[in-house]
Design goal:
This protein is mainly beta. It has one helix and nine strands; from the N terminus they run E-E-H-E-E-E-E-E-E-E. The chain has one domain: Sandwich (Immunoglobulin-like), CATH 2.60.40.790. A four-stranded antiparallel β-sheet has the order 3-4-9-8, with no helix packed on it. The protein has a three-stranded antiparallel β-sheet with strand order 5-6-7, with no helix packed on it.
Length: 153
């Protein structure tokens, strides 16, 4: 069985999934093109979700995921955890405030996926939406938390 490469950053070690890395790069490139080209960029099929920007960080006790969702209400967000994968999805409907002259805001289905590197406690996951940023806290399982071992002698 082939080992996946590891990326070291500070104290954290992240296992890289090359296909996931390319998928993330492709998604970010699409976002940059859409930002630069506005409405002139290539059309995206309506059933293909876009991916909001987000960060995944780790503490000794939990993983914290912050996703940018400006203008999205908590009733428009669905959060699911299965095994070690977190999926944040939803849909932003087109606003009906008169004649639309220009639009650069994202609408349609969105989906943010991330695989968490360690065992988690799915029953204790919490989420908070504040100022357009969704913060999901995923506690680590007791087995995944670091333990200090005393040396006797």
């Amino acid at each position: 069985m082939a080992m996946l490469p590891a990326r070291r950053g500070g104290q954290n070690v992240t296992i890289l999934d090359p296909s996931r890395e390319f998928e993330d790069i492709y998604g970010r490139m699409g976002q940059l093109i859409n930002l630069a080209m506005g409405d002139f960029g290539p059309a995206r099929p309506a059933d293909v979700p876009w991916s909001p920007l987000g960060d995944v960080s780790e503490t000794d006790d939990a993983y914290q995921i912050q996703v940018e969702l400006p203008g999205v209400g908590k009733d428009q967000i669905d959060i699911q955890v299965q095994d070690r994968e977190l999926v944040i999805s939803g849909e932003i409907k087109e606003s009906k405030h008169g004649l639309l002259r220009r639009s650069s805001r994202r609408i349609g289905k969105f989906e943010f996926r991330t695989s968490l590197p360690g065992d988690i406690d799915p029953d204790q996951v919490s989420a908070q939406l504040s100022d357009g940023v969704l913060t999901v806290t995923v506690p680590k399982s007791q087995a995944a938390k670091p333990r200090r071992i005393e040396v006797s002698g």
